């Protein structure tokens, strides 16, 4: 299935951003990186498409 047909709305993305920011704060600076890696692996597993995950990783590296 095409990822574009399942895209989140802007309000949904804002909600995800808020929840993610709160979770990063909750994890604290010493565990934020571990939390993000665990989250990425859980989402990669749910997506079940390694090439799409690779493309997302490359996109996330852009303009850091």
Question: How does this model look, in words?
Answer:
- It is a single chain.
- 72% of the residues lie in helices and 0% in strands.
- By secondary structure, the chain is mainly alpha-helical.
- The protein has a domain at 28-64.
- The longest helix is centred in the first third of the chain and has 18 residues, at 10-27.
- The termini are far apart.
Q: Which regions have little confidence, pLDDT < 50, spanning 5+ residues?
A: none
Largest sheet, strands/sense/barrel = none
Structural class: mainly alpha
Total number of helical segments? 3
Assign an overall shape: globular
Determine the fraction of residues in helical runs and give it as a percent range: over 70%
Radius of gyration: 13 Å
One letter per element, helices H and strands E, the order comes to: HHH
